[in-house]
Amino acid sequence: MSTLLSHIRNYISRLYFPSIRAIDIVEILIIACLIYFFMAWIQRTRAYTLLKGILIVVLFIIVANIFQMTTILWITQRLASVALLAIVIIFQPELRKALESLGNRTILSSIIPFDTSGDRSERFSDHTISEIVRAVNEMSEVRTGALIVMEQNILLDEFVNTGIILDAEVSTQLLINIFEHNTPLHDGAVIIRGDRVTSATCYLPLSDNARINKKFGTRHRAGLGISEVSDAFTIIVSEETGRVSYAYMGVLTTGVTASGLREQLHQFQKRTVKAGEDRRIRIRKGQKKDEE
Fold it and tell me: What pTM was estimated for this model as a whole?
């Protein structure tokens, strides 16, 4: 028995137990969060299918290495130098969207006090909210398809330029007339900045979210897509059913009532105002620090 205990003590004494600091625990938690968000992002995009294909190739290479398939291993070694570049090219659209999403987060504005990406954002009035809700409600009753994008802090100039510039005050009659069937401006999205309709017939990026229900068509995918790459609030009216939906920060909410839409617009209005006030405070602090 004593011999057994002696062997156990000798074995334990040879084991290496690294000292764990508080910063090590923080580092592990950060890495775990990054891996979790990376896997969640992968699963929401087409990159998940591409990743499975890459894993199959890696598994095939491991099998080739086990059975010493020299020709395949030789080809693999020659292609290894360009494999990283090929992965970047293959995942280029997904990587770009991930970086855009990271840059659009409000945390960036708190880190960079002089971020002016949304300096031109304006507050839309209660009158504009009433006009939009009335127009959406009337279009919903007659099943007129509509796609209305309300800009917040991230400027949508690249999408504004794809349409026809209007620069008109928001009104119920204007929105209904734009989306009326067989009119020159009915196809595409309307972008609203502040209390004015900047342009119509705008082209929006389609969402790549594989989990979106197949019953939703191009209009819903476009509304969800613009909400994934910006902080805009998008209102969608289905041409088939007349149901009203809205998309914000990559989340699509369907079956919205007129009162529910009005409430969401008021909340969105408050967020826009708060973001503008926070930005002015940061700029004032920066100017004061420069003066000192």
Answer: 0.60
